[in-house]
Specification:
This protein has 3 helices and 5 strands. It has 152 residues and is α+β, with helices and mostly antiparallel strands. It has one domain: Thiol Ester Dehydrase, Chain A (Roll), CATH 3.10.129.10.
Length: 152
Amino acid sequence: MTAEAPPAPALSYGRLVPVTVHFDDLDALGLLHNARYPLMVERAWAELRQEHGFCFEGDWVAAGDACNAVRELRIGYEAPVTRPGTYAVHLWLERLGNTGLTYGFRFCSADGSTTYAHGTRVLVRLDAATLRPAPWSEGFRAAGRELLRPAG
């Protein structure tokens, strides 16, 4: 007889996106290297965008809303990741502006119950020709509204 795993905590906002930590993501001490956390978050964000049809395929003009740049990244580390395996990134939007957005994230256990790192990232949508801020499309904004964290 095997024990059942405890149920994953319900998320009241955002999405939990699975990510994999590989052996070569660990540093000399056997800990997930601090530079890998933002990489895992970026991969989760890219996967989420692709689910909604927003992707970069080599042409910045055709990329539309995928033509964006990071304005700010803040991250705090809570507990070390000490082994390869399946984890998750909990993603949500804190703010969805006309040309920018702030998304929050937690690097966590696969079920979302343990937080290893957390932070925010600010993105700015760019016009491919001028590299100046440009408005998000209505399709992107609609997808983003699904991820907005409730006020409170």
